[in-house]
Write a structure and sequence with these properties.
By secondary structure, the chain is an alpha/beta fold. Helix content is 33%, strand content 22%. It is built from twelve helices and 15 strands. The radius of gyration is 20 Å and the shape is globular.
């Protein structure tokens, strides 16, 4: 397979509702869309999960642009590929920049699956025909507003409820949810809002029967999470701390992490995702696929990876209508009774809406191979 052209688009989309976590509020989403074209006429699509500010990790759409243009695109365009996993090997000499790497690599995976006439799920080794869906609820103005959201999502069929927490918005909130909905599958996501000085406070979470507490401590920490886990009955799930298979191995061996939130963008792409998946299967560590407010293109990649056997918990891959008035794919990602069906068409299984994408494109540039 030869990638002979890459089209980079910067688009902007308005969220249906503001999304608030312990680190900030998002009202809209700037997205970098990658289209990788093969010499046989197929297009593979992916997106970067980077946002405008370096508040989730150090990457932004502004830092992604030069890395892609000056380093990643030339490495993909220079020579033919036998398999998309070779992209990760070509990128190995470039440190960090996981979101940027993932976006480029995922587009190649989609193109490869389409050339093979197979779904991306099949190419990755997925076995499920449908996936269970959870939902992530941001911080609201009042507990009453949060409880109303929880009720609406339960009625819609979501299999798991995740709520964002932070100091001052945690114990009372979880208590209110548990009193109102005692039997739901519930987890809390702290987005790095606590420290080891909060151990006694975090121990109070145990009484709510949570599936897990996600990333309570620093974004780059593994050691202190192991110390915290010794004091908690609630399993700790790591997110921001895990970028590679080696990070996961160390976290598991230290007992810093009993559950893994896998975000393809955070770990640099699908090749590393597969390596982490296999390690978690070997170590009996449950996994689920986290979300980054993706458009339908990124959401389609998440559906494909969640079809793998090791993804045992409902992920954050909610349907398009949860975030967008109009998504950029056709058909939109739809959910029924808390389930999304894995598409059976080649590649990611959804068709990007080219005409609509053009109307929301702020910047577009084409990159072509020097060696044909």
């Amino acid at each position: 397979m030869k990638i002979n052209e890459i089209i980079l688009r910067h688009i902007k989309m308005d969220l249906l509702h503001p999304f608030t976590t312990s680190v900030g509020t998002e009202y809209d989403k700037d997205v970098l869309i990658i289209e990788a074209k093969t010499d046989s006429g197929y297009s593979g699509w992916a997106e970067s999960v980077s946002i405008k500010e370096p508040i989730y990790n150090e990457e932004t759409i502004g830092t992604n642009l030069p890395i892609m243009k000056d380093f990643l695109f030339p490495l993909v365009l220079e020579e033919a590929l036998d398999h998309p996993s070779e992209v990760a090997e070509r990128f190995r000499s470039i440190r960090g920049n996981f979101n940027a790497k993932a976006a480029v690599e995922q587009a190649v995976w989609d193109a490869y699956a389409k050339e093979e006439g197979r779904t991306l799920s099949e190419v990755l080794g997925g076995t499920k025909k449908e996936i269970d869906v959870g939902v992530s609820i941001g911080i609201t103005e009042t507990k009453e507003a949060l409880l109303e959201k929880v009720r609406d999502f339960i009625d819609a069929g979501y299999k798991r409820i995740k709520v964002k927490v932070k100091p001052g918005w945690d114990i009372d909130v979880l208590e209110a949810i548990r009193e109102t909905f005692p039997d739901i599958e519930l987890m809390a996501d702290a987005n790095c809002a606590y420290t080891l000085e909060d151990i006694d406070h975090l121990k109070k979470f145990d009484r709510f029967g949570l599936m897990m507490i996600e990333q309570p401590l620093d974004h780059d920490d593994i050691i202190d999470h192991a110390k915290l886990q010794k004091h908690l009955q609630t399993p700790i799930c790591l997110d921001e701390s895990l970028h590679t298979k080696e990070d996961v191995r160390k976290a598991v061996e230290l007992d810093s992490c009993r559950i893994v939130n896998l975000k393809v963008g955070r770990v640099g792409g699908l090749t590393e995702t597969l390596a982490i998946h296999d390690l978690c299967m070997e170590k009996n560590i449950p996994m689920w696929c986290g979300g980054m407010l993706e458009t339908g293109i990124g959401r389609a990649h998440n559906i494909a990876i969640t079809s793998l056997e090791g993804f045992t918990y409902p992920g954050d891959t909610a349907p398009s209508s949860h975030y967008w008035e109009r998504d950029i794919i056709s058909p939109a990602v739809e959910m029924k009774d808390g389930i999304i069906h894995v598409p059976d068409r080649p590649g990611i299984g959804y068709e990007p809406d080219g005409d609509y994408i053009e109307t929301i494109t702020l910047y577009k540039e084409r990159f072509t191979s020097i060696r044909k």
